[in-house]
Every structure is written in C-alpha cells, then in structure tokens.
What does this fold into?
Amino acid sequence: MTTDTEEPTLTIDELAARTGVTVRTVRFYSTKGLLPPPVIGPRRVGHYGREHVARLALIEELQHQGMTLAAIERYLRQLPPDLTEHDLAVHRAVVSSWAPEAVETVSGQELARRAGRRLSEEDLARLVAMDVIGEEDGAYRVDTALLRLGVQLLDVPLSQEAILAARTALLEHSRAAAQELTQLLRGEVAERDTQDVKSLSVHMQPLVVQALLTAFQRSLREELREWLKDEEAGGSA
It folds into this structure.
C-alpha cells in the first residue's frame, strides 16, 4: 500500500496519462498556480506525486460543477497549503455531493478504466457492499460520485466490517443532521413561494456540506487527540 510520504515518481507525460489531461494542460495549470511545482530530479526532470493526481481530480470535479477557471483559482487559494492526497479527496467528495445523484451502468472494462486500476473479485465485492456499485445483467451500476472514494477505501487497512459500520454510523448521524437543518430552513421559508425555497436550497447546499465537513474534521481531530493521550497514559502507567 502506498502512503502520502512516498517520493513523487510520475513524469509529466505519465501524470497526464494517469489523469486523462494533456501535458499542455498540466503545464498551464502549473503556471496558474493550480498545481504545486514538481520535484526536480536527475537531468532536471520534473517528478509528480499522488497529491498532483488528487489536485487534478479536484479541478476536474470543480469544472464538472460548472465553475470557471477564475472561480477554481479562488476556491483552491482558500484551501490550506499543506493538504495531503486524502484531504484533497475529501474536498472532491464534498464538491461532488453538490451535484444531483449520478448513476450509470457500465461494463467491467469501463469500470476498471474509471477506477484507474484492475479490480479483483474481492475489490468488486467490497464496492458492492459499500453500495458504490451494483451488479446488473453482466454489467455494473455505478454511483459515479462515490466511485473514486470507494476505490481509495479499498487500500485503507481496515476490515470490511469496520468500514461498513463506519458508513452506517455516518449515514445515521448525517441523516439526523439533515433532518434538523431542514426543519430550521422550513421555519425560515414558511412564508415564501416555491421558487424562493428552491433557490435557497441551491445556495445553501454547498455551504451546509462544507460546514458539516469542517465541524466533523475538528471533532475527529479532538477525538483522536484524546485517544492518543489515553494510549500514552496507559503506556506510561
């Protein structure tokens, strides 16, 4: 399994092939500051890593949502400069959640292409269990918004049972938060017409998702900090 601390190993041609963009586009993004500079290796060859792959995926998702290049620049400038590949993947998942649910039916070959890797029978079973894909008459029904995140979870050193339990907990708590927020919004728009309600929903959704992500990240950091303190206290006892 690879980690965020690995040395960048992709040339610009390999990065372009991996992400489906052109070399010219990679260079353009670099000049605009959308991508960090490569690590210069022997013979002055630039090398790119998984962070660059994740940033290009995030840019692609932002474009898919209809954002202009100038808006993407502003969005990326607001992000902390030390984000890891996994942090960027979380942001991409948040951005993709702004879009309506997108489910497509694809062949096994197309599924592997979109996943960016060969998928074993065990991988497919885990993706089915996570409700990222579903088997359908020799093809696969794919939740395109969740596919990249689901594929990344295949490399997480947790059992399938733990991942599914975590998914269940997140779904239950997020549904409860969504219901409470909806009740608050209903109170605010009770006197407005249907068009106003739809407009408010469109504008509020990305803001609420970002707020929930930020609150969850802070809570998770605090819980992990307390956990580590307990482990250290137990080890020194």
